[in-house]
Known about the structure:
By secondary structure, the chain is mainly alpha-helical. The chain has helices at 2-18, 40-45, 59-62, 72-75, 77-86, 95-112, 124-138, 152-168, 171-178, 185-198, 205-218, 223-230, 234-247, 261-269, and strands at residues 90-93, 147-150, 251-254, 256-259.
Amino acid sequence: MKNWFLNSWFIWDIIQSRYATKNMSSFLYPIQALTTILDKTSIARLDLAVFSNQYDVNPEEINKIGNGEPEPELELLSEVLRWVWSHKAKVVFTQEALEHLFNEATELYNLFFSEGIPLVTIDLKWKLARLSVAVAYLTLSTEDFQNVTVEKEHVEIIVDFLKAEYTNTGLNILAKETRFEKLDLQDVRLLLAEITAAMENAVDIEKIKEILRYIVLQGRVTKDDLTLKFSLADKSQLRPLLSALKTANLIKAGRGFYPEAKLIEAYKISEGFKI
Length: 275
């Protein structure tokens, strides 16, 4: 019973530390705060995310007497919502809206896709479609309340909003830093040459290939694993090698060392570095 309690407490402590709400100023990019409250699967399910912190609005703007009535259009919002939720209207996309939606879905994916924060995924067209329909409904894009027409301008409103919001929070920069281009055999040869040169030939290229194969196939290795299996000297060989691999974005450190997507891609293309 004691061991069960200790293990449960340890697991809960990990969860709490991982998904603890933090101020956005605690992160290099505000978008990274999202990972402290949602896991990757939940993030991918979001149609959009909006970010704000305590510095976005001055307290003077909030703590003042109102100087007028709300806009008349807002009073109609409850009626619009009832109409939307009745599901009586048929949604129709114009051809121009569809073409624009598909083009923008591709552009947004290329600009904002980040594996670690998958707000913008390969199926983004569905999210853009739902959000564009919402704009068409709320702007009363209808003549008879039996059909709702989604125009190109409705798609543009959503696209402009997403671009501004995700750029302001750094998702585009994070995506660029964590993305690698598709490799070919020449790229793999250059990677191997750069690693060998960075180590000043302290480890020959054939042994480097063996080590890379081992890291990919094991999925996780430790310093002791590499030292014992490949007889590497800690200061003159192992440390420079790990440094070179991390610089080349081929491995990442955690409780050991793990292959990055770039290393796995290089392994596949070269059929296990048989070049």
